[in-house]
Amino acid sequence: MELHSDFGARVVIHTDQLAWQPSPMKGVDRRMLDRIGAEVARATTIVRYAPGSSFSAHTHTGGEEFIVLDGVFQDEHGDYPAGTYVRNPPTSAHTPGSAPGCTIFVKLWQFDLNDRTQFRKTMADELSAPVDGVATALLHKDDREVVTYCQLAPGAVLTSDAAGGIELLMIDGAATVDDLILEKNAWLRLPDGDALVLTAGQNGAKIWVKSGHLRHAKAPAV
After folding, report:
1. Handedness of CA 99, 103, 109, 112 (dihedral sign)
2. Are residues 6 and 115 in the same domain?
3. Among candidates 78, 169, 170, 171, which has minimal Cα distance to 119?
4. Residues 12 and 180: beta-carbon distance below 8 Å
5. Which of 59, 54, 51 is nearest to 75 (CA)?
6. 3-state DSSP call for residue 40?
7. What is the dihedral of CA 101, 79, 113, 43, to 10 degrees?
């Protein structure tokens, strides 16, 4: 399966307008944003766990990165409330689920296969003092990518001309990019060479941003 697999094209998806699709596990549904592959795929997805649902134990051969958007995600390593950012590198394993239910934004098979750095962070705890209305948290940085979380005051402007493409998810609030209005849960992917100029709306904005990674996009090595 290929979905939005042309990484030289701009893509914007208002994810709340997508229908939920069932996954192979009962009670776990998803909204696919981009994908190369079948069930084993380089994929960016929003996943919803119904209360009491779970996935069977599995190993992330290509790594897993996710943000908890609402509820509480759980596995044998602990509970992950909304606002948590997690990186589970290649070869890591767990049995995910959620007793109360949750929604996560998850990216699979997008790691350096030699990466073994595993961590979880509460994104808001990492924020710096605001500069021109923009508070930034550096969540992860390596030779392939930079991952940040930003909180913007009303009317504040976030800019980036990072090489290798830019991707963002609106965690809360609203913003404009060119003539696009991005509201909560909107997802935007800009190709290598496109600059980001984003202006927060009247209630500000909370945004997860990744850059540099699109030049490494390819199908899983299976």
Report:
1. negative
2. yes
3. 78
4. yes
5. 54
6. coil
7. 10
CB 65 within 8 A of CB 121: no
Asked, for residue 155, whether it belongs to a domain, the answer is: yes
- Distance in Å from the first CA to the final CA of the chain: 15
Q: Domains in the chain: how many in total?
A: 2
Q: How far apart are CA 45 and CA 42, in angstroms?
A: 10
Residue with token string 């997690």: 86
Identify the three-state secondary structure at position 216.
helix
**Chunked mean pLDDT (size 10), the chain, 222 residues:** 92 97 93 90 95 90 96 95 97 94 96 91 97 98 96 98 97 96 98 97 98 89 66
- Residue 186: CB atoms within 10 Å: 21
Q: Are residues 109 and 132 in the same domain?
A: no
Query: CB-based contacts of 179: which residues, under 8 Å, 6+ apart?
Result: none
Specify the pLDDT at position 66.
98
| 181-209 pLDDT, tens digit each | 999 999 999 999 999 999 999 999 999 99
Q: Name the residue with tokens 């084993």.
A: 40
